Amino acid sequence: MRYVVAVAEELHFGRAAARLHLSQQTLSAQIGRLESQLGVTLFSRDHRQVRLTPAGLSFLHGGQRLLADAADLLGAVQSSMPVVRLDTIGEGLWPARIAESLRARLPAVGLEFTQLHGLAAALPPLLDSDLDIAFGWPAGLDEAIPKSLRSVVVMHDPVGVILPRDHPLAASADVTLADLSRYPVLLHTAKEAIEWRRWNERLNTDFGLSVAKRLHGHGRSSANAAVLTYGHPAIGPLTAGVPQGLVIRPLVDPVPFYEWSMIWRARNETPQVRQILRLVQEMSRTLGWTALPDGAHWSPMSPLRTSDAG
Length: 310
Description:
This protein starts with a helix and ends with a strand. The protein is built from 10 helices and 14 strands. The protein is α/β, with parallel strands linked by helices. The strands form 4 sheets. Strands 5, 6, 7, 10, 11, 12, 13 and 14 form an 8-stranded mixed sheet that branches. It has a two-stranded antiparallel ribbon with strand order 1-2. It has a two-stranded parallel ribbon with strand order 3-4.
Protein backbone atom coordinates (compact mmCIF):
# COMPACT_ATOMS: atom_id res chain seq x y z
CA MET A 1 0.00 0.00 0.00
CA ARG A 2 2.88 2.38 0.77
CA TYR A 3 4.36 1.56 -2.64
CA VAL A 4 1.11 2.39 -4.47
CA VAL A 5 0.64 5.64 -2.54
CA ALA A 6 4.23 6.72 -3.23
CA VAL A 7 3.92 6.08 -6.99
CA ALA A 8 0.52 7.78 -7.06
CA GLU A 9 1.86 10.86 -5.28
CA GLU A 10 5.02 11.08 -7.40
CA LEU A 11 3.54 9.82 -10.71
CA HIS A 12 7.07 8.67 -11.45
CA PHE A 13 8.50 5.23 -10.66
CA GLY A 14 12.09 6.48 -10.37
CA ARG A 15 11.27 9.21 -7.82
CA ALA A 16 8.97 6.88 -5.88
CA ALA A 17 11.67 4.18 -5.75
CA ALA A 18 14.22 6.70 -4.42
CA ARG A 19 11.73 7.88 -1.80
CA LEU A 20 11.12 4.28 -0.70
CA HIS A 21 14.85 3.34 -0.84
CA LEU A 22 14.10 0.61 -3.41
CA SER A 23 15.36 -0.12 -6.88
CA GLN A 24 12.96 0.97 -9.61
CA GLN A 25 12.87 -2.61 -10.90
CA THR A 26 11.78 -3.96 -7.50
CA LEU A 27 9.10 -1.30 -7.12
CA SER A 28 7.70 -1.94 -10.60
CA ALA A 29 7.61 -5.69 -9.95
CA GLN A 30 5.79 -5.24 -6.64
CA ILE A 31 3.17 -2.96 -8.19
CA GLY A 32 2.71 -5.42 -11.05
CA ARG A 33 2.23 -8.30 -8.62
CA LEU A 34 -0.39 -6.32 -6.67
CA GLU A 35 -2.26 -5.43 -9.85
CA SER A 36 -2.29 -9.12 -10.79
CA GLN A 37 -3.64 -10.11 -7.38
CA LEU A 38 -6.36 -7.45 -7.50
CA GLY A 39 -7.24 -8.12 -11.13
CA VAL A 40 -7.17 -4.39 -11.94
CA THR A 41 -4.74 -1.89 -13.44
CA LEU A 42 -3.78 0.83 -10.98
CA PHE A 43 -1.47 2.83 -13.26
CA SER A 44 -1.32 3.41 -16.96
CA ARG A 45 2.25 4.05 -17.98
CA ASP A 46 4.27 4.66 -21.07
CA HIS A 47 7.75 6.01 -21.76
CA ARG A 48 6.68 9.57 -21.03
CA GLN A 49 4.37 9.56 -18.02
CA VAL A 50 2.50 7.60 -15.35
CA ARG A 51 -1.25 8.10 -14.80
CA LEU A 52 -3.67 6.81 -12.19
CA THR A 53 -6.55 4.73 -13.49
CA PRO A 54 -9.98 5.09 -11.85
CA ALA A 55 -9.20 1.95 -9.83
CA GLY A 56 -5.85 3.44 -8.89
CA LEU A 57 -7.47 6.68 -7.74
CA SER A 58 -9.89 4.75 -5.55
CA PHE A 59 -7.01 2.71 -4.12
CA LEU A 60 -5.02 5.88 -3.43
CA HIS A 61 -7.78 7.56 -1.40
CA GLY A 62 -8.42 4.45 0.68
CA GLY A 63 -4.70 3.71 1.04
CA GLN A 64 -3.90 7.18 2.35
CA ARG A 65 -6.62 6.83 5.00
CA LEU A 66 -5.43 3.38 6.04
CA LEU A 67 -1.79 4.46 6.27
CA ALA A 68 -2.80 7.47 8.39
CA ASP A 69 -4.85 5.19 10.68
CA ALA A 70 -1.90 2.79 10.96
CA ALA A 71 0.42 5.66 11.95
CA ASP A 72 -2.09 6.83 14.59
CA LEU A 73 -2.38 3.28 15.94
CA LEU A 74 1.39 2.87 16.14
CA GLY A 75 1.72 6.22 17.91
CA ALA A 76 -0.96 5.24 20.45
CA VAL A 77 0.73 1.90 21.13
CA GLN A 78 4.15 3.50 21.50
CA SER A 79 2.81 6.18 23.85
CA SER A 80 1.40 3.47 26.11
CA MET A 81 4.74 1.63 26.28
CA PRO A 82 7.13 2.25 29.18
CA VAL A 83 9.70 4.93 28.40
CA VAL A 84 13.34 3.99 28.91
CA ARG A 85 15.31 6.83 30.48
CA LEU A 86 19.05 7.05 29.85
CA ASP A 87 21.48 9.60 31.20
CA THR A 88 23.98 10.78 28.56
CA ILE A 89 25.96 12.95 31.05
CA GLY A 90 26.54 15.85 28.62
CA GLU A 91 27.08 16.94 25.04
CA GLY A 92 30.00 15.63 23.01
CA LEU A 93 30.61 12.55 25.16
CA TRP A 94 30.42 8.88 24.21
CA PRO A 95 27.06 8.20 25.98
CA ALA A 96 25.42 10.91 23.85
CA ARG A 97 26.67 9.17 20.70
CA ILE A 98 25.43 5.77 21.83
CA ALA A 99 22.04 7.31 22.69
CA GLU A 100 21.61 8.53 19.11
CA SER A 101 22.62 5.10 17.82
CA LEU A 102 20.00 3.48 20.05
CA ARG A 103 17.33 5.85 18.77
CA ALA A 104 18.16 4.89 15.18
CA ARG A 105 18.32 1.14 15.91
CA LEU A 106 15.24 0.95 18.16
CA PRO A 107 12.58 3.18 16.58
CA ALA A 108 9.77 1.30 18.35
CA VAL A 109 11.23 1.87 21.84
CA GLY A 110 10.37 5.06 23.69
CA LEU A 111 13.63 6.73 24.73
CA GLU A 112 14.12 9.72 27.00
CA PHE A 113 17.57 11.23 27.53
CA THR A 114 18.82 13.32 30.44
CA GLN A 115 22.11 15.17 31.01
CA LEU A 116 22.96 14.99 34.71
CA HIS A 117 26.67 15.79 34.16
CA GLY A 118 28.11 12.95 36.19
CA LEU A 119 27.49 9.47 37.52
CA ALA A 120 27.30 10.75 41.10
CA ALA A 121 24.29 12.88 40.11
CA ALA A 122 22.71 9.98 38.18
CA LEU A 123 22.79 7.45 41.05
CA PRO A 124 19.89 8.87 43.14
CA PRO A 125 17.35 8.87 40.26
CA LEU A 126 18.68 5.47 39.16
CA LEU A 127 18.02 4.05 42.62
CA ASP A 128 14.60 5.76 42.80
CA SER A 129 13.54 4.27 39.42
CA ASP A 130 13.40 7.74 37.83
CA LEU A 131 16.27 6.68 35.56
CA ASP A 132 16.86 3.28 33.94
CA ILE A 133 20.43 3.34 32.60
CA ALA A 134 23.45 5.52 33.34
CA PHE A 135 27.05 5.60 32.15
CA GLY A 136 30.28 6.54 33.86
CA TRP A 137 33.38 5.39 35.73
CA PRO A 138 32.14 3.89 39.02
CA ALA A 139 35.67 3.58 40.47
CA GLY A 140 35.93 7.39 40.52
CA LEU A 141 33.05 7.85 42.97
CA ASP A 142 33.35 8.44 46.71
CA GLU A 143 31.88 5.02 47.46
CA ALA A 144 31.19 1.78 45.61
CA ILE A 145 27.87 1.71 43.78
CA PRO A 146 25.05 0.09 45.79
CA LYS A 147 24.59 -3.68 45.53
CA SER A 148 21.15 -3.16 43.99
CA LEU A 149 22.88 -1.84 40.83
CA ARG A 150 24.81 -3.73 38.19
CA SER A 151 27.55 -2.44 35.91
CA VAL A 152 29.54 -3.68 32.93
CA VAL A 153 32.47 -2.05 31.11
CA VAL A 154 31.41 -1.20 27.55
CA MET A 155 34.01 1.28 26.24
CA HIS A 156 37.70 2.14 26.55
CA ASP A 157 37.64 5.68 25.18
CA PRO A 158 41.03 7.18 24.14
CA VAL A 159 41.45 10.74 25.38
CA GLY A 160 43.11 13.64 23.58
CA VAL A 161 44.08 17.24 24.19
CA ILE A 162 42.24 20.34 22.95
CA LEU A 163 44.60 23.12 21.93
CA PRO A 164 44.40 26.67 20.58
CA ARG A 165 45.34 26.54 16.89
CA ASP A 166 48.40 28.74 17.54
CA HIS A 167 49.65 26.66 20.50
CA PRO A 168 53.19 25.23 20.04
CA LEU A 169 51.84 21.66 20.33
CA ALA A 170 49.10 22.17 17.74
CA ALA A 171 51.50 21.61 14.81
CA SER A 172 52.09 17.98 15.85
CA ALA A 173 49.99 15.08 14.59
CA ASP A 174 49.88 13.77 18.15
CA VAL A 175 51.12 14.96 21.54
CA THR A 176 53.14 12.98 24.06
CA LEU A 177 52.31 13.36 27.71
CA ALA A 178 55.94 14.34 28.29
CA ASP A 179 55.53 17.27 25.86
CA LEU A 180 52.20 18.25 27.40
CA SER A 181 53.80 18.36 30.86
CA ARG A 182 55.75 21.46 29.72
CA TYR A 183 52.51 23.47 29.53
CA PRO A 184 49.92 24.06 32.27
CA VAL A 185 46.46 22.68 31.47
CA LEU A 186 42.91 23.69 32.25
CA LEU A 187 40.96 21.34 34.51
CA HIS A 188 37.39 21.88 33.33
CA THR A 189 34.68 19.77 35.00
CA ALA A 190 31.06 20.01 36.06
CA LYS A 191 30.78 20.13 39.86
CA GLU A 192 28.69 16.96 39.64
CA ALA A 193 31.35 15.09 37.61
CA ILE A 194 33.36 13.72 40.54
CA GLU A 195 34.69 10.79 38.55
CA TRP A 196 35.93 12.93 35.60
CA ARG A 197 37.72 15.30 37.97
CA ARG A 198 39.41 12.41 39.74
CA TRP A 199 40.43 10.81 36.45
CA ASN A 200 42.09 14.09 35.42
CA GLU A 201 43.79 14.49 38.78
CA ARG A 202 45.27 11.00 38.54
CA LEU A 203 46.52 11.76 35.03
CA ASN A 204 48.06 15.02 36.25
CA THR A 205 49.78 13.31 39.18
CA ASP A 206 51.10 10.33 37.22
CA PHE A 207 52.57 12.44 34.40
CA GLY A 208 53.54 15.64 36.17
CA LEU A 209 50.94 17.90 34.54
CA SER A 210 50.39 21.26 36.19
CA VAL A 211 46.98 22.93 36.39
CA ALA A 212 46.70 26.51 35.15
CA LYS A 213 43.04 26.97 36.19
CA ARG A 214 40.29 24.87 37.71
CA LEU A 215 36.96 25.74 36.12
CA HIS A 216 33.42 24.42 36.49
CA GLY A 217 31.01 24.25 33.59
CA HIS A 218 28.68 21.95 31.69
CA GLY A 219 29.36 20.45 28.28
CA ARG A 220 32.13 20.44 25.72
CA SER A 221 31.08 23.86 24.40
CA SER A 222 31.87 25.39 27.79
CA ALA A 223 35.24 23.60 27.92
CA ASN A 224 36.11 24.71 24.39
CA ALA A 225 35.22 28.31 25.22
CA ALA A 226 37.56 28.17 28.22
CA VAL A 227 40.45 26.94 26.04
CA LEU A 228 39.83 29.82 23.61
CA THR A 229 39.59 32.35 26.44
CA TYR A 230 42.66 31.34 28.47
CA GLY A 231 44.85 29.78 25.77
CA HIS A 232 45.67 26.69 27.86
CA PRO A 233 45.22 23.07 26.68
CA ALA A 234 42.44 20.92 28.13
CA ILE A 235 41.94 17.18 28.21
CA GLY A 236 38.91 15.94 26.28
CA PRO A 237 37.43 13.07 24.28
CA LEU A 238 38.98 12.59 20.84
CA THR A 239 35.57 12.37 19.18
CA ALA A 240 34.37 15.74 20.44
CA GLY A 241 34.02 18.43 17.83
CA VAL A 242 35.94 21.66 18.28
CA PRO A 243 35.08 25.14 16.96
CA GLN A 244 37.18 27.33 14.71
CA GLY A 245 40.40 28.38 16.44
CA LEU A 246 40.91 25.04 18.21
CA VAL A 247 42.35 21.65 17.26
CA ILE A 248 42.22 18.30 19.01
CA ARG A 249 45.21 15.96 19.01
CA PRO A 250 45.64 12.36 20.25
CA LEU A 251 47.71 11.89 23.39
CA VAL A 252 50.40 9.18 23.11
CA ASP A 253 53.30 7.57 24.99
CA PRO A 254 51.13 6.34 26.65
CA VAL A 255 47.59 6.65 25.29
CA PRO A 256 45.29 7.58 28.20
CA PHE A 257 41.78 6.16 28.05
CA TYR A 258 38.57 6.59 30.01
CA GLU A 259 36.76 3.41 31.00
CA TRP A 260 33.00 3.75 30.50
CA SER A 261 30.64 1.40 32.30
CA MET A 262 26.91 0.97 31.81
CA ILE A 263 24.98 0.94 35.11
CA TRP A 264 21.41 -0.20 35.73
CA ARG A 265 19.11 -1.57 38.46
CA ALA A 266 19.44 -5.31 38.98
CA ARG A 267 15.70 -5.82 39.46
CA ASN A 268 12.47 -4.77 37.76
CA GLU A 269 14.01 -4.55 34.29
CA THR A 270 11.42 -4.01 31.58
CA PRO A 271 11.74 -5.89 28.27
CA GLN A 272 12.76 -2.59 26.66
CA VAL A 273 15.57 -2.04 29.20
CA ARG A 274 16.81 -5.60 28.68
CA GLN A 275 16.74 -5.04 24.92
CA ILE A 276 18.93 -1.93 25.27
CA LEU A 277 21.34 -3.65 27.67
CA ARG A 278 21.77 -6.54 25.21
CA LEU A 279 22.17 -4.24 22.23
CA VAL A 280 24.82 -2.00 23.85
CA GLN A 281 26.85 -5.02 25.00
CA GLU A 282 26.49 -6.64 21.57
CA MET A 283 27.74 -3.46 19.86
CA SER A 284 30.59 -3.24 22.36
CA ARG A 285 31.74 -6.77 21.48
CA THR A 286 31.16 -6.50 17.74
CA LEU A 287 32.75 -3.07 17.30
CA GLY A 288 35.66 -3.70 19.68
CA TRP A 289 34.82 -0.83 22.01
CA THR A 290 36.66 -2.39 24.95
CA ALA A 291 39.82 -3.16 22.94
CA LEU A 292 42.79 -1.42 24.54
CA PRO A 293 44.73 1.19 22.56
CA ASP A 294 47.77 -0.02 20.64
CA GLY A 295 51.16 0.38 22.30
CA ALA A 296 51.60 1.84 25.77
CA HIS A 297 48.35 2.95 27.39
CA TRP A 298 47.21 4.27 30.75
CA SER A 299 44.14 4.50 32.89
CA PRO A 300 43.76 4.91 36.66
CA MET A 301 42.67 1.26 36.79
CA SER A 302 45.90 0.05 35.13
CA PRO A 303 48.44 2.89 35.43
CA LEU A 304 50.79 1.89 32.57
CA ARG A 305 50.34 -1.10 30.31
CA THR A 306 51.31 -2.14 26.79
CA SER A 307 49.09 -4.07 24.40
CA ASP A 308 51.60 -6.93 24.31
CA ALA A 309 51.46 -7.25 28.09
CA GLY A 310 47.64 -7.30 27.99
